[in-house]
Design brief:
Length: 292
């Protein structure tokens, strides 16, 4: 996906409500629904979604609602095709203890996915059991059940889970495309970074913002838009490689002081290497997904 950085640079829109409006480059748009391909014009028309002021809630981050079916947008067809290719590895996720909640997971190979522990269990109690955790492919056509919780860390908020197919599926989870991972100790502070996730359970969306930096605890602070439901999704660099696992919105909500948080891939690699046996298939998959 080395063409993605060039295509991202081609596409920039005026800012609307986002975590840091001045840093947003591409608003939320739906990857699968509401898309019309105009091959003769080399464009794709996509439907944007946006955050709207609701006037409710005591905290800044609680004062915004997510609305789909906003304006249509024409984007270059090659750009959409790159986004779609990445999104085919990203899944809508439903926690095992709350069927009314939602999150995101992404495939790293052979049916193994990464997500947050709070996406596995909204109660934050479960770190070992599948319970009723389930994912759905980005296009919504297939469902996958949890076969095994390989490892889950409640404090750092990340999980590796192995999936199995639902009975009526047309696809097995290992046949899905996998995202590549990039372990960057010194991220490009002013580069473009994208999120792919399931905001408010409204299906897979893509959004993009400029800038990233290390938080004092080593996590990434980034400015690509996210909202509730993006948790567990990938933070992607301009080359289409995952650099982090999205896990939280900053406390300032939709303001110029806002930011989002991601667990860096280098931390995930270090932790999984520490806790899993060297011959564990999940660890081998994780390391195989890593690019130089």
């Amino acid at each position: 996906m080395k063409t993605l950085g060039f295509l991202l640079a081609l596409f920039s829109l005026p800012a609307m409500a986002s975590v840091i409006p001045s840093r947003m480059e591409t608003p939320f748009f739906r990857v699968y629904s509401g898309v019309k391909i105009k091959a003769d014009q080399n464009i794709a028309r996509v439907s944007t979604s946006r955050l709207m002021k609701s006037g409710t809630g005591n905290e800044p981050k609680d004062q915004w609602e997510f609305h789909t079916a906003s304006a249509d947008l024409n984007i270059p067809l090659p750009f959409y095709q790159e986004v779609r290719s990445m999104s085919d590895s990203v899944m809508q996720a439903t926690p095992g203890d709350d069927s009314h909640s939602f999150g995101t997971a992404f495939h790293i190979g052979q049916g193994y996915v990464l997500t947050n522990q709070h996406v596995l269990s909204t109660s934050r109690k479960n770190t070992t059991e599948c319970k009723n955790f389930v994912t759905r492919s980005g296009d919504g056509k297939d469902r996958f059940r949890c076969e095994q919780v390989v490892y889950c860390d409640r404090t750092a908020d990340f999980c590796m889970i192995k999936l199995k197919a639902w009975k009526k599926n047309r696809r097995e989870p290992h046949t899905l495309p996998a995202l590549t991972l990039h372990s960057s100790h010194e991220p490009d502070r002013e580069a473009l970074y994208a999120t792919i996730g399931n905001p408010m359970g409204e299906g897979i969306h893509f959004a993009r913002g400029r800038g990233i930096r290390r938080h004092r605890d080593g996590k990434f602070m980034f400015y690509a838009p996210v909202h509730g439901g993006n948790s567990g999704g990938p933070l992607v660099n301009e080359a289409g490689e995952v650099v982090g696992l999205v896990y939280a919105q900053g406390q300032y909500g939709i303001t110029e002081d806002g930011y989002n948080l991601a667990i860096p891939v280098d931390f995930l690699i270090s932790e999984f290497t520490r806790v899993l046996p060297s011959d564990h298939p999940g660890l081998r998959i994780l390391l195989d997904a890593l690019v130089d």
